[in-house]
Amino acid sequence: MISSVTAVVLCGGKSTRMGRDKADLVMDGVSFLDLTISKLSSFCSNIIVSGRSVPGFLCVDDVFKGCGPLGGIHAGLSACTSPWAFVISCDMPLFKPSVAEVLSSHAGCDVQAIVPVTPDGRVQSLCAFYRFDVAPVAASCLDSGRCAIRALLDSIRTVYVPFSDSRPFVNINTAEDYERLCL
Judging by beta carbons within 10 Å of its beta carbon (0-12, 13-18, 19+), is residue 68 exposed, middle or buried? Predict the structure, then answer.
């Protein structure tokens, strides 16, 4: 079990398919970003926001600009003060803290990432635990032009944890996704 965790909330994406900033979308009267932060505060000692300025939180910008989520993961891990970071994208409003609890039970001294896998086989690398010392490996991937998170996961000791429910991992990418969520 992981006891000291820093959360890294990724919200620096372009939201191209959505057409507006996904962090500002609202569910039950609360923005996705505020909802995510609220859920994380139940198990994280510190919260870092990557890609956006939010008063009251440590906010970081990508060192490697235009490299997608891996750039945000690198920036967050570089600022992390805990042995572990729980990285999550702000566009997963159905996330439950119990997911993090299940994942953390798979931590071990030789593990560098703990990543959920949904029943359809999708790797959920934007709702996962990463050790802080993975930041240099992420930098190496980014330096060599390998911006896919898969490049990082293939370069470190990763444990994949199957989940029987994909609902907590639903991410909202388009206006249609958002409409379905709000129904």
Answer: middle
pLDDT over 90 (residue 17): no
Amino acid 76 reads G
Terminal CA-to-CA distance of the chain, rounded, Å?
37
Domains of the chain: which residue ranges? Answer: 5-182
Question: Considering only CA atoms, which of 155, 115, 108, 120 is closest in space to residue 134?
Answer: 155
Give me 78's structure tokens: 């570089």
Angle at 124 between CA 152 and CA 102, to 5 degrees: 110
Which pTM does this prediction carry? 0.94
| pLDDT tens digits, 92-104 | 999 999 999 999 9
CATH number assigned to the domain covering 5-182? 3.90.550.10
Q: Residue 83 contacts by C-beta under 8 Å, 6 or more apart in sequence?
A: 2, 4, 131, 132
1 band by pLDDT with thresholds 50, 70 and 90: low
